[in-house]
């Protein structure tokens, strides 16, 4: 399986597959196929895909450890950038479709509503991670400092679930929130277990 995953065409194919949800959501919006409230459906859909790609990024390391497929590490950076891509589209859709790019209303709204404040904090961390995701940044910062910064993805996971929870709190709809919380909690919990296991003498 690893030999197949290492083929030169696999990563470009994965890139194309990662773009399909964005094309589908935007296309469905243009064709008026997103239901009675297309703006809300588009914003929500982009947020959902942000969380899904975040789960995929955090899945790479445990999957690599348990399968031995080291080739998976080559995909982590690209998947991480797709988390930022979908989070940015999510923010753009909110700023445009909900607020009409009106900064006079947009900035107070970020401060006034906690779930938007938390979402902006998560996006700010993702911006820092995306801006330093390249080899030059690693060399400039040093590997250890770079690794410390990129552990902020764990904070992004917590903030993302909190953002989703507060957003759904008004309607008392917590089913999907529980699913994402369980998935991300398990992926973060695996890292705690793996570190503890590595420190315990054999």
Automatic annotation (TrEMBL):
Organism field: Hydrogenophaga defluvii
Assembly behavior: Heterodimer of a catalytic subunit (MsrP) and a heme-binding subunit (MsrQ).
Function, as annotated: Part of the MsrPQ system that repairs oxidized periplasmic proteins containing methionine sulfoxide residues (Met-O), using respiratory chain electrons. Thus protects these proteins from oxidative-stress damage caused by reactive species of oxygen and chlorine generated by the host defense mechanisms. MsrPQ is essential for the maintenance of envelope integrity under bleach stress, rescuing a wide series of structurally unrelated periplasmic proteins from methionine oxidation.
InterPro entries for this protein: Fe3_Rdtase_TM_dom (IPR013130), MsrQ-like (IPR022837)
Keywords linked to the UniProt accession: Cell membrane, Electron transport, Flavoprotein, FMN, Heme, Iron, Membrane, Metal-binding, Transmembrane, Transmembrane helix, Transport
Membrane topology type: Multi-pass membrane protein
Name of the protein described by the UniProt record: Protein-methionine-sulfoxide reductase heme-binding subunit MsrQ
Classification via Pfam families: Ferric_reduct (PF01794)
Start and end residues of each Ferric oxidoreductase domain: 47-161
Co-factor remark: Binds 1 FMN per subunit.
Main location: membrane
Gene: msrQ
Transmembrane segments: 12-31, 51-72, 79-97, 117-137, 149-167, 173-194
Cofactor requirements of the protein: FMN; heme b
Family: Belongs to the MsrQ family.
Protein's cellular compartments: Cell membrane; Membrane
């Amino acid at each position: 399986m690893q030999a197949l995953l290492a083929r030169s065409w696999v990563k470009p194919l994965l890139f194309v597959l990662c773009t399909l949800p964005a094309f589908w959501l935007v296309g469905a919006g243009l064709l008026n196929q997103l239901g009675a409230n297309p703006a809300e459906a588009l914003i929500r859909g982009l947020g959902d895909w942000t969380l899904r790609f975040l789960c995929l990024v955090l899945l790479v390391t445990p999957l690599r450890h348990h399968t031995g497929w080291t080739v998976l590490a080559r995909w982590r950076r690209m998947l991480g950038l797709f988390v930022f891509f979908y989070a940015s589209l999510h923010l753009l859709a909110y700023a445009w479709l909900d607020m009409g790019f009106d900064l006079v209303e947009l900035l107070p709204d970020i401060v006034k509503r906690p779930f938007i404040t938390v979402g902006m904090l998560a996006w700010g961390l993702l911006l820092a991670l995306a801006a330093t995701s390249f080899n030059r940044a690693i060399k400039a910062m040093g590997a250890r400092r770079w690794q410390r910064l990129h552990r902020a993805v764990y904070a992004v996971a917590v903030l993302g679930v909190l953002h989703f929870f507060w957003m759904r709190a008004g309607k008392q709809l917590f089913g999907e929130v529980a699913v994402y919380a369980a998935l991300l909690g398990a992926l973060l919990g695996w890292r705690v277990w793996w570190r503890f296991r590595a420190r315990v003498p054999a």
